[in-house]
Amino acid sequence: MKYSLKFKGIDEVREFENENFTIRDVLNELGLSAQTIVAKQNGELTIEDSLINNGDEIRLVQIIYGG
C-alpha cells in the first residue's frame, strides 16, 4: 500500500505494509513530535491516531510559535 507525503522539502510516495499504520507512525519515522506538527489527511485536519489508507495524501505542517 502507498501514501503521498508532503512536508517541507519532502514530496514523495511512500509504501507501508501494516494496515494499522497511523499518522503517529509517520511522525516517528521522521523523528517529529506531534506537539510541533499539524497533520492533514486528504486535505482535512486529523489526529495522530488516524489510520492511513492506501492512496491517502498526508501533509505535515510545522507549527510556529513564540513569545
3D architecture notes:
The chain is built from 1 helix and 5 strands; from the N terminus they run E-E-H-E-E-E. It has 67 residues and is mostly beta strands. It has a 5-stranded mixed sheet with strand order 2-1-5-3-4, with no helix packed on it.
Main pleated sheet: 5 strands, mixed
Question: What is the averaged pLDDT score?
Answer: 95
The spatial strand order of the largest sheet comes to 2-1-5-3-4
**Percentage of residues in helical conformation:** 10-25%
Q: What would you call the structural class? A: mainly beta
Strand portion: 35-45%
Task: Please render the helix and strand layout as text.
Layout (H helix, E strand, L loop, with lengths): L1 E6 L2 E6 L7 H8 L6 E5 L2 E3 L10 E6 L5
Parallel strand pairs: 1-5
Antiparallel strand pairs: 1-2, 3-4, 3-5
Label this structure with key terms.
12% helix; mainly beta; 39% strand; 1 helix; 67 residues
Summarize the structure.
The chain has one helix at about 25-30, and strands spanning about 1-5, 10-15, 35-40, 45, 55-60.
